[in-house]
Amino acid sequence: MTIETFEHIAKTLRPQLINLCNRFLISNRLPEEAEDMVQETLFRLWQMRERLDNYQSPEALAVTIAKNVCIDHLRKQHLRLEPLEENDAEAPQETDQSLIDSETLTWIQKTLAHLPANQRRMLMMRSEGMTIDEISTICNTTQQSTRTMISSARKLMLKLLRKGRQ
Q: Closest Cα to residue 73, out of 137, 130, 22?
């Protein structure tokens, strides 16, 4: 694979990978971390450049690598968490809307956590804009099975969200 070909692949994948990494790192709210995860993903792809022609979909491989890089990052970070001080004077004052947005996001994340892992994963990939074909390739399932899993995940998510409002 030539440098130009790899650069073309990297340029087309970067927005999708940044979006994916931002979703994984949503609780951190640091865009630099997402960029670091994308850089790590592209670095790993670069190391595999001689073998990329063997893959049917380098894009699906890149998404899988990015997901694994984010998971590794979150695992490492979880081990280094420090308790926050409640009276931190430097903490920015949040507006009512940002509090509502934060609570809504937390609520959705908690609801997502109740989904089975494979359904949650497929639903997240679909929300990232991936096609059914790409998701089924990554998850090693049939397209019909992927559609069914995503549909079931959406229905369960809706049910749990409605239940949480009551």
A: 22
Which tens digit of pLDDT belongs to each residue from 72-88? Answer: 877 776 555 444 444 44
Name the residue with tokens 């990297």: 10
CB 17 within 8 A of CB 38: yes
8-state DSSP, 52: G
Report the distance separating Cα 36 and Cα 56, nearest Å.
26
Read off the pTM.
0.46
Chain segment 101-150, per-residue pLDDT in tens = 667 667 777 777 888 888 888 888 888 788 888 888 888 889 999 999 98
- Beta carbons of 153 and 115 less than 8 angstroms apart: yes
Which two structure tokens, joined as six digits, stand for 1?
A: 């694979």
CA-based nearest residue to 70, from 126, 30, 109, 10? 30
- Dihedral class, residue 141 (left if φ above 0, else alpha if ψ from -120 to 50, else beta): beta
- What does the DSSP 8-state code read for residue 55? S
Gap between the Cα atoms of 11 and 166, Å rounded:
46
